[in-house]
Amino acid sequence: MATRRKAQRLRVSSPGADISLNSREGGVVCRFERSMSAYSSNTPARSAHGALMTTYRPPTVRRVDWVNPIILTALGTIGIFFIKSAQRAWPNGTQWEQQLVWLALGAALYVVISTFDYHVWMKNAWLVYLASILLLLLLWSPLGEVRSGARRWLGFGSYTVQPSEFAKIGTLVMLAFVLAKSELGTLRDSLAMLGKVAAIVAVPMMLIFLQPDLGSSLALFPTVFALLYVSNLSARFFVTVFGLFLVALVVLKADIKHYENFVQTRLVLQGKITTTEYNDFLKTNNLGPMSGLGNEETKVLQGTITPKAYDEYLQANHLTLVGQLGQYQTRSWLPLKDYQRDRLASFLDPGDVDPQGIGVAWNQKQSQIAVGTGGLTGKGYENGTQARLGYLPSKVATSDFIMAVFLEETGFIGGLAVIGLYAILLGNTLRIAWIARDRFGRLLCVGVAVLFMVHVFVNIGMVQGLMPVKGIPLPLMSYGGSFVLTCGILMGLVQSVHRHCREAV
Fold first, then answer.
1. DSSP per residue, 340-406
2. Were both Cys, which of 63, 203, 429, 486 would link to 449 (CB 3.0–4.6 Å)?
């Protein structure tokens, strides 16, 4: 009978390392393991001779995360089909073909970014951040394009780029770099670091807000707080911020009520509501008549003259209502445009700013109709009516309100399926954050997950009337080249973190 030699094992331990030599059947197997503490540190590992180990094994297929790319492909494919469906009645609807090109470019960026070690971004964080700020500043150069009063796009021939999307990448990388290098303790000890974080975020937010683009600027807030939370900042900071947030909501609510008073005054002067309805509004909201009005405007509100007589007065004196009443944004000290107040007011009190639902509340109202008529299983692909008949305007049907088109045609079941895909995507990204080999990789993944979550939550809530209307697209489903490329870069970073995670070493 053949004899089997006993396996011999030699184990040597050192700080941050566990080396095992196994001898079986004359063969020797060497195993090298690093402790968890070594991977949680940002200090590069050193060899037995003290040499700095900065070269890692090249990524292999075994180390590729297949979950995220499969989900991203599925979401992009769904987006193509329903952008095409939303354009079915358009004579020259080619946005779905353009989206194919953007998705291909985004996939290429994903592959390239995921191939390189993500620490390249850490070493060049300042360059990435400054490049994103430079793109924002170029909006005020001859390259900047103004559309509907907003300066958000850089024009390169027939193509345009939205710098605010790429600013999210630069801000995230810079925040992850600063927080990865900082040791957080109590709130008092962390004040210097918080000052750096505030400065990093304030510059792009201010430039984005000035475009103006309120949605993109506000999308950064949850990401910042999530990164600070993961960095174990003192709970007192979050309690303080939450208190300030509540105060800000109270101030904003008061400002919106005064804006509604302004709108109601305008509606009376236009003859769209009666003075009785106006007085009922004032009584319900404990408000008084708007100050700073002229004699003729006051007479209309008091019922002394009719809106028709007031209109004749304007024409006889070559005046306009806008010239007489002005804009509310010049009366308020809050840095909001009137169209932004319109969106907030139409969400909070739609009957006061758009009683007939044919103005600022139109898009969201038609979106709710699309969602509601979709029912459990939907009307079927390309059988939706809201976008095809033009009730949901073509300008928003393929972008911010693509989910309304999808829900009308696939119903509640289709909506659950897409939400499930996003849930898997975000959950897997957080899983990769958990196994990241250092704090920088962990912060990158958490930031990407939160940024995607904000877009998904706000966009889906918006099409159902649960959130105010904001220009926040749905990742990979909404039409738009800049955001697709941004998604490709961000998810490429997540893949790079996975390829170099601690389980893969």
1. HHHHHHHHH-HHHH-TTSSSTTHHHHHHHHHHHHHTTT-S-TT--STTTTTSS-HHHHTTTTHHHHH
2. 429
So what's the pLDDT on residue 156?
82
Res 463: pLDDT? 92
Digit-coded pLDDT (tens) for 344-395: 887 777 766 777 667 777 888 899 999 999 999 999 998 888 888 888 888 8
Q: Can you name the residues that pair with 153 across neighbouring β-strands?
A: 145
- Overall average pLDDT of the 175-187 stretch: 82
CB 268 within 8 A of CB 300: yes
- Residue whose C-alpha is closest to residue 218's, from 232, 204, 231, 199: 204
| Residue 499 token pair | 């390829």
The β-bridge partners of 159 are 156
Burial of 83 (0-12, 13-18, 19+ CB in 10 A): buried
Residue 394 CA, chain-centre distance (Å), reads 22
Q: Which two tokens stand for residue 298?
A: 């006051």
pTM of structure: 0.79
Tokens representing 121 are 């971004």
Neighbours of 439 (CB within 10 A): 19
Tell me the Cα Rg of the chain: 28
- Lowest mean per-residue pLDDT among 31-35, 340-344, 358-362, 467-471: 31-35
CB burial readout 184-193, b (16+ within 10 A) else e: beebeebeeb
Whether 234 contacts 187, CB under 8 Å: yes
CB neighbour list of residue 430: distance below 8 Å, 6 or more residues apart: 445, 446, 449
Mean pLDDT of the chain: 82
Tokens of 492: 């490429």
| Residues 275, 268 contacting (CB under 8 angstroms) | yes
Whole-angstrom distance between the N-terminal and C-terminal Cα of the chain? Answer: 41
Residue 189 CA, chain-centre distance (Å), reads: 31
Higher pLDDT, 394 or 256: 256
Where b means 16+ CB within 10 Å and e means fewer, 327-365 reads: ebbeebeeebebebbbbbbbbebbebbbbeeeebbbbbb
**Axis crossing angle, helix 220-230 with helix 191-209, rounded to the nearest 10:** 160
| Phi/psi at 454 (5° precision) | -60, -45
Token pair of 207, please? 């430039």
Q: CB neighbours of 411 closer than 8 A, spacing ≥ 6?
A: 374, 375, 376, 377, 378, 379
Q: Per the structure block, which two tokens stand in for 188?
A: 């008092």
Cα 39 → chain centroid: 30
Please tell me the predicted confidence (pLDDT) of residue 487.
Answer: 96
Output the six-digit token pair for 92: 């020259």
Give the Cα-Cα-Cα angle 455, 206, 138 (nearest 5 degrees): 95
Question: Which is nearest to 143 in space by CA: 163, 121, 127?
Answer: 163
